[in-house]
Amino acid sequence: MATxxxxxxxLPLQETIVHSNKTARAxxxxxxxxxxxxxxxxxxxxxxxxxxxxxxxxxxxxxWFTFIWTLCVCIKWNQCITKTYPDRLLKRVSxxxxxxxxxxxxxxxxxxxxxxxxMNTVLSLLAIECPVDKLALxxxxxxxxxLTFYSFVETTKFAKLWVPFCKKYNIQVRAxxxxxxxxxxxxxxxxxxxxxxxxxxxxxxxxxxxxxDLAAQRPFLCDHDTDFGVFCGVHRLDHPSIIKVISENKxxxxxxxxxxxxxSREKSPKHQHHYKAGAMNVLTRVSGVMTNAPLxxxxxxxxxxxxxxVFLHAMCMVFAFYNGLKDDPFGNQLANLFYxxxxxxxxxxxxxxxxxxxxxxxxxYGSSPDDMTKSDNISNEDLQKIFGKxxxxxxxxxxxxxxxxxxxxxxxxxxSCIEAAIHVASCSYEYGTSWGIQVGWxxxxxxxxxxxxxxxxxxxxxxxxxxxxxxxxxxCAPTTYPSTLKQQKRWGSxxxxxxxxxxxxxxxxxxxxxxxxxxxxxxxxxxxxAHSVPGICYASLPAYCIITGSHFFPKVNERxxxxxxxxxxxxxLYVFWEFRRIGLSLRMxxxxxxxxRVNTMTAWLYGFISVIPxxxxxxKTTFEVTQKEYxxxxxxxxxxxxxxxxxxxxxxxxxxLANLGFxxxxxxxxxxxxxxxxxxxxxxxxxxxVNGMLRLLKVDYSExxxxxxxxxxxxxxxxxxxxxxxxxxxxxxxxxxxxxxPSSTIWKSGAFALLFVHLCRRSSQxx
Length: 767
Ligand SMILES: O=c1ccn([C@@H]2O[C@H](COP(=O)(O)OP(=O)(O)O[C@H]3O[C@H](CO)[C@@H](O)[C@H](O)[C@H]3O)[C@@H](O)[C@H]2O)c(=O)[nH]1
Ligand SMILES: [Mn+2]
Description:
By secondary structure, the chain is an alpha/beta fold. The protein has 2 domains: 100-325 and 354-403 and 413-476, no CATH class; 515-616 and 656-764, no CATH class. Helix content is 52%, strand content 8%. It is built from 29 helices and 14 strands. Helix 5 (115-126) links the parallel strand 3 (101-107) and strand 4 (135-141). Bound molecules: uridine-5'-diphosphate-glucose (UPG) and manganese (II) ion (MN). Uridine-5'-diphosphate-glucose binds at residues 106-108, 113, 140, 142, 275-276, 279, 300-301, 354-355, 446-449, 487, 490-491, 494, 623, 625-626.
């Protein structure tokens, strides 16, 4: 542009900022060397033990911890973040040069995922800062629900008021439920016009909520003569495709809404539908024949765009690439472990976490970075093998794959493509094609996101996460402990099963283009549920030793005890220091350090175990949708109550949006068998502590208090620490109603605990 100043053309659109990491590295290496000392100590002192079993088990577990820690050190070694500068971009590139973008939202169940949440996500996305004629929004409804469809139609009407309002007044948070919750009336200092519009929009939004609420309360009367006719008598798992263009921006009028399209793909009990991955592939194909944008953004139904500039941030990376850097699909995830994320950012880039992420369509279509230099022509036959029979889809895919930085324009109106769209949304379309295997979202894991991202990194692409002051997207973490467990179990089984696919990170680093350290990062992630076995083993050791009067720690007055104490103190202080650096509280640190241990022994263990029958072909893992909760009332009160449940999204939301409202809950329990191992560990440690106390009481302190040192104080300390970790379970043993652990679970766990105590006594005679 002529108006460019020298400065603005020279300043980069994106910058990688390297964090100095020396102190952290030093501490991590110190912990690593202490771990190695422990292993050496175990080997050297093996023969001096009265009982070999605890010593051997401890050695095995500690070897595992050392291995995992080594992976962590490798991943975190270099730390960097990427900063993007939308204002520089706008000075340099005119909006008409932006590539267009297809946005996908997935929902699966209007009850587990209340429509109003999904609709807020939709509204926040329709209102992002992006030229309207570049945008199309697709909603995939796996629930085939007339309620979702109805809400979507009504929301689109409301969006015609909401979007212009947001853009006119540059509203920051464009999900109305957040916007109107944070402000109960417009600021006095604002203009009169603003105040009026504000009030009328708040009223309209209230109306929208009421309509959706009412519709949710009564069964849907499907009138054959209306748009709802197609939903008559359909079953969510057995119905033809329903695709409706709800709003169409034919002329690309800037004041109008973007294209808004509803999709409920065909389902039949005879065909696998592959849950979210299947839905994403249908979205990819339908959008391929309708708008075929070179960029896509996918978002879970509960993840609203918190930063309206998110598209511009992503554009900074696109144009930064055009300026000569390496190409990458855009990652924008909420990571639970910042430092790991920063670490991975300095390798090939963050994992794809399933939501809030921009992808290039050609990357999803299976291309590799070096394909750019190859000839563009793929034979029609090959295209059919990969993408399937649809001529429209093959043509659009060919256009994407042969793109040589030229713009891909295909703004024919979506409503003229319905027939082709229905074809590619059918449930048998994928047979004999590469969908789910080479292209699109990959099948074979309930963590389809990680698997798909791994496939992309495996081809040599890089990814990036933008960091701006505002989180790009915010979503709901499960609000109850049982649903947290379910989610974590799904993640657990999903990540570990990746190791048994052809996308095993070690294979990809040998055979394909996955970088070695990136492979270590994936290995760390995929082995995460396997941690449960040594975890639970190590947690039983103190109880075992106290009950049998044996040791797995050196005695308090022996030198090597210092190594163990050193690790404990240094590691915990170190994690706390990491937390402080990103502004998290002591409470947060304590919650997270506890919940990690609890989850290890419950959900991860089940995730890990549930993979075994699947690998043997005896069962299929299923994707259970997480319950999302919508509360519009009394946010303040919710904040005071209860313990935040440690999931990653919660962690981020906790920091910035303390009153988001979904996030907090006291522990509640259901009859899920998942908590049994946790309760067993708790009970066993309680028995052990009572045992230990009695022994301490018996000591005649006046005679020789030194014998106390012989009594396994280290083991006792561990037991107490575990008790603190399981504090919520302890409360649950005595809690009422939902807050109490069901008595059947307590009985079952009690029986296992007794068995354990009994076996301890017996085994001490054998080993
Ligand atoms: O058959 C299905 C099941 C789920 N979904 C959608 O998938 C998304 C994620 O489901 P959710 O129950 O919220 O799972 P989470 O555990 O919260 O999701 C995380 O983990 C998933 C993998 O386990 C990823 O797919 C997600 O993107 C990631 O946010 C939601 O929009 C659902 O509507 C479908 O479209 N079809
Ligand atoms: Mn979710």
